[in-house]
Amino acid sequence: MFADLTELTMNAPEYLSERLAESQASLAENAPVRVNMTLPTPGELRQCLPVSTQVAERLPAQRRAIHDIVRGRDDRMLVVVGPCSIHDPLAALEYARRLAELSPRISDRLLPVMRVYVEKPRTTVGWKGLAYDPDLDGSGDMARGLHLSRHLMHEVATLGLPVATEVLQPMLAAYLDDLLAWVAIGARTTESQLHRELASGLEAAVGFKNATSGDVGVAVDAIHAAAHPHRHFGLDERGRPALCETMGNSHAHVVLRGGHRGPNHDSVSVRAARAALEGAGLPARLMVDCSHANACKDHRRQAEVLRDVVAQRAAGETSLMGLMLESHLEEGRQELVPGALRHGVSVTDPCLGWQATEALLLEAAERLR
Ligand SMILES: O=C[C@H](O)[C@H](O)COP(=O)(O)O
Ligand SMILES: C=C(OP(=O)(O)O)C(=O)O
């Protein structure tokens, strides 16, 4: 397994992309957008990296378990935990092995799902994630990025862990969604109609973050929109433009991540979010992201936030059904300097280290028993 991924990390799957002939590319030389490479279609990538029988059989049960928590039929809490972003697939697999080992020790009270985030939304500009730039140097080998992303998700799923990701580019869902047990729509895209349509057609439960401003209303609107059937523009398996019809997703929920005005994990904010959902006739089900503006981007504060949420839940706030933690092998973050990276340290937001994460999840499970 590891040998396979190591090899993949080094060898670009050239057969999956095709540089357009110079004559074709140069037609667009002076255009603001230059198309110089075709990418594999979703069908081609899926064929190249098929889902094993074991993973395919396990995924529906994982999704059902998450649905049950989202709906309140299972009183455990969902915990979406893992690196802010994946930049080193081998380090991510090492993390996944540790989480898979911890999982049975807490699974009576918590259901861990691993963050395998291969796309990053940026406030302005910055590295956009493994799917866009797996070599971390701006070369943007997206064919390899897609291949690595799918391969890694499959490896994580093979360990028995449910896989979570944020879908930023709606087109990418078709490459990955047969591996996803939980999906995030981020704070910067919750208001986007395209993302709401996408969520409406996913089998996985979808968490909509409140806006970066702190506005929870847009996430409530998003849940409403995602629950509806839609007809929207999309791509089929062969990459052709297609009219897509969706059924509506009844497992969308709000994720409180704080905002420009400060955190929103406290009991007053939780009650306000609950009231907003109830007022819109929607189930009052909430996940709290312990990171981002809830931790004021200080990874150590995630522990305080988690303890506060668990205490509220233990005191009877049953609308709180989930937690999110940004966590990697080692704590903190580092600047993205290719060739000088420390192993297992985030290159985007600061993360809790593994030891602190493990201790915190064991403590939370105990508190919820
Ligand atoms: O989760 C990661 C970041 O908070 C998000 O991608 C924005 O990052 P940036 O503000 O560093 O661009
Ligand atoms: C980008 C993320 O969060 P948000 O959309 O809340 O900023 C994230 O969870 O990685």
TrEMBL record:
Signal sequence segment: none
Enzyme superclass (EC): transferase
Alphabetized UniProt keyword annotations: Amino-acid biosynthesis, Aromatic amino acid biosynthesis, Transferase
EC number assigned by the record: 2.5.1.54
InterPro entries assigned to the protein according to its UniProt record, in alphabetical order: Aldolase_TIM (IPR013785), DAHP1/KDSA (IPR006218), DAHP_synth_1 (IPR006219)
Pathway named in the protein's UniProt entry: Metabolic intermediate biosynthesis; chorismate biosynthesis; chorismate from D-erythrose 4-phosphate and phosphoenolpyruvate: step 1/7
Nucleotidyltransferase is among the record's keywords: no
Limits of the DAHP synthetase I/KDSA domain: 65-360
Listed GO MF terms: 3-deoxy-7-phosphoheptulonate synthase activity
The reaction(s) this protein catalyses: D-erythrose 4-phosphate + phosphoenolpyruvate + H2O = 7-phospho-2-dehydro-3-deoxy-D-arabino-heptonate + phosphate
Family of this protein: Belongs to the class-I DAHP synthase family.
Function: Stereospecific condensation of phosphoenolpyruvate (PEP) and D-erythrose-4-phosphate (E4P) giving rise to 3-deoxy-D-arabino-heptulosonate-7-phosphate (DAHP).
Protein's name according to its UniProt entry: Phospho-2-dehydro-3-deoxyheptonate aldolase
Source organism per UniProt: Billgrantia bachuensis
